[in-house]
Amino acid sequence: xxxxxxxxxxxxxxxxxxxxxxxxxxxxxxxxxxxxxxxxxxxxxxxxxxxxxxxxxxxxxxxxxxxxxxxxxxxxxxxxxxxxxxxxxxxxxxxxxxxxxxxxxxxxxxxxxxxxxxxxxxxxxxxxxxxxxxxxxxxxxxxxxxxxxxxxxxxxxxxxxxxxxxxxxxxxxxxxxxxxxxxxxxxxxxxxxxxxxxxxxxxxxxxxxxxxxxxxxxxxxxxxxxxxxxxxxxxxxxxxxxxxxxxxxxxxxxxxxxxxxxxxxxxxxxxxx
Length: 273
Known about the structure:
The protein is α+β, with helices and mostly antiparallel strands. It folds into two domains: about 10-195, no CATH class; about 210-270.
């Protein structure tokens, strides 16, 4: 009888992702906070798994690419009561989108990506700080209710943070107060994105190798970036690499792999020292 093989997981909890990375990197201890740091550096997407329907409906809208192929801001604003409040700029899996919140819906059980925007990033940052301080259980109650205060008129006021969730299949974004996230919701990440964080040490690099001329050009690009942006931190690989690739693309240069870029950044730092 043939040996049966279990289907591989598509999703990890943060704890599972940290353990998985620790195991495959031969004992280098990776924590849940480390996994969150990758999300803050836009290396992966943090998602939430809802296990029950939300009790209320929340504003939502379709994702529109913020490029020449998508509608303009003026077109999106048509029919929107308050464009400042209801039109949002989001980044999702390295793509930039505009969302016009026009209707309301409740959320059914399932997995939703957390958008990369100012509001949602603040919640992810809070989670990172809580994990660093040992104050967060990512497998239990994820979001807690904010305090209710009484204003001068005697009315209760609830202070909260908003989070933009994306239904990747339906291509819509839903804006929801953090305290309205159902109980027992927890964070998850895609296994495919976790795997993309690692590269085999024996990976052949002959097809990625830059010519001497291209290497010198890239080092000039990095030097130019540093001169134009005094506070540029070469240790911020994701941000810096994105700027380098953008400049290289306009110059028609070969786009190197992530590993090659990191080597160039390290060489540039060594030259600075």
